[in-house]
Automatic annotation (TrEMBL):
Gene: yycH
Entry's transmembrane regions: 9-28
Top-rank taxon: Bacteria
Natural source organism: Peribacillus simplex
Keywords: Membrane, Transmembrane, Transmembrane helix
Stated name of the protein: Two-component system activity regulator YycH
Keyword Transmembrane helix: yes
Residue ranges occupied by any Regulatory protein YycH domain in the UniProt entry: 4-436
Length: 445
């Protein structure tokens, strides 16, 4: 074999090897072990909230066989909300109480029905983003409860009712009867085995409230707290943050650009912002007001622990309040440490008050569990007080009273103490069981 022939053979072998390796790379499929994603350890945090995250039911009432049962369990309410958000609603229209041939209060709390209750009136124009409404045009109205009645389920379609308790208004939408039957089978039947019994208490001729028949046992809670980034808030609230001056004050710090003012209260971990130039109001719809209030907090990642819920809105004041909820219960604090309040001006936000902390990790509490009085005892106590107009009471609820403290390592803790509250207008008060003080009458918005 001469040298030239040997080179040719070697070249052919190299070219063949190259072709084989190239083909192997192109066609190679590695074997991976199956990986099951678990939300327990893979969690992507998102601080953007949509309507269904913030506007949620606060309780569910079941009426059956002359008895009443209620739950505020977040898991059950989420499951129920998931169900009715998948229904198709059509033919939404107002129905008069006269046509229903019964008194308004009797209709709302009728035997054989479920009441899904919200904190305040919700504009349907906004909540229709949660519901599947097929109508091209929907009447303008607000509601604070959705009612499903077992006796009204018949034929192919049946009515579901949207009720505004304060306004005495009732609207109905038609839903597939099969879905309603499945819903009642899942949630209504057997509710008396799963939930505590409540008793009806007549407040006045137009209002009945439902309170626990027996004493209620709830755990006292303690949390370490975490903090929001003050810089994010400053950048969101001031048009030109680099021109903002910072100055120390007795309670913490002040930031101003000569017009706007943001105060950081380090005693109570609160932010207070005001823009006097926006004082005159531009009145828009309640739907627009609530949507832009949600968007505003989204814009600066302001929800933090995602436990804030819509609580109250005043269209006249252009005011919206979101409240901290824990385990399905509202929380209260006399300094405002559990509320996000916005008041809107003619073009932008006029005032903005909120805490700048979030609940971090929960600790075992030495004082838990705590047993609260029965609802009947609460009602009797309210009736016995000369300084309380019982007929003006609009709600009675268990809530957490938030107090702050320092532990032995000088780490800030907050304590959530189960407490009975009652509401008149938009203000909440502690039910006064102390005969000497008469209770806290300062009012918590």
């Amino acid at each position: 074999m001469n040298f030239e022939r040997a080179k040719s053979i070697i070249l052919i072998i190299l070219v063949g090897t190259s072709i084989f390796l190239t083909w192997s790379i192109w066609t190679y499929e590695p074997e991976y072990d199956l990986f099951e994603q678990s939300s327990e350890f893979i969690k992507i945090k998102s601080d953007v909230q949509i309507v269904s995250d913030v506007i949620k039911p606060v309780s569910i009432l079941f009426h059956g066989n002359g008895q009443h049962f209620q739950t505020s369990n977040p898991a059950e309410m989420n499951e129920m909300e998931k169900e009715f958000s998948q229904w198709r609603f059509r033919g939404i229209k107002e129905v008069s109480v006269n046509r229903l041939q019964r008194k308004f209060d009797d209709f709302v709390h009728e035997d054989g029905s479920i009441e899904i209750e919200f904190s305040d009136d919700i504009p349907i124009a906004l909540y229709k983003t949660v519901l599947n409404i097929t109508d091209k045009e929907v009447p303008k109205f607000s509601f604070d409860r959705i009612i499903i009645k077992q006796k009204d389920i018949s034929g192919n379609e049946s009515a579901v009712y949207f009720v505004s308790y304060d306004q005495g208004k009732i609207y109905q939408g038609m839903v597939d009867s099969k879905k309603l039957r499945n819903f009642m089978d899942s949630f209504y039947r057997g509710s008396y085995d799963k939930h505590p019994e409540y008793t009806a208490e007549t407040i006045n001729s137009k209002r009945t409230l439902f309170v626990p028949e027996k004493p209620v046992e709830i755990n006292k809670l303690e949390y370490y707290i975490d903090y929001l980034d003050i810089g994010n808030l400053k950048n969101a609230l001031f048009t030109y943050p680099k021109f903002v001056r910072q100055e120390p004050v007795s309670v913490g710090e002040e930031y101003t650009d000569g017009t706007r003012l943001m105060t950081v209260n380090k005693d109570n971990y609160l932010i207070s912002y005001i823009n006097p130039a926006q004082k005159s109001k531009l009145f828009g719809s309640s739907s627009d007001l609530l949507q832009k209030s949600i968007n505003f907090i989204n814009d600066h990642d302001g929800w933090e622990d995602n436990n804030y819920r819509f609580a109250y809105m005043s269209e006249d004041e252009q005011r919206v309040v979101f409240r901290l909820f824990v385990n399905g219960y509202p929380t209260f604090n006399e300094s405002g440490m559990t509320e996000i309040e916005q008041i809107w001006g003619k073009e932008e936000i006029y005032s903005y008050d909120r805490p700048y902390f979030s609940l971090d990790s929960v600790l075992p509490s030495e004082g838990s569990p705590k047993t609260l009085q029965s609802g009947k005892e609460v009602v009797n106590q309210l009736k016995s007080k000369d300084n309380i107009d019982f007929k003006s009471v609009e709600d009675i609820s268990i809530g957490y009273k938030l107090n702050k403290s320092l532990d032995s390592k000088l780490v800030t803790l907050v304590t959530l103490e189960p407490t009975w509250y009652y509401r008149i207008g938009d203000k909440w008060f502690i039910v006064p069981f102390d005969e000497d003080t008469g209770g806290d009458q300062s009012g918590l918005e």
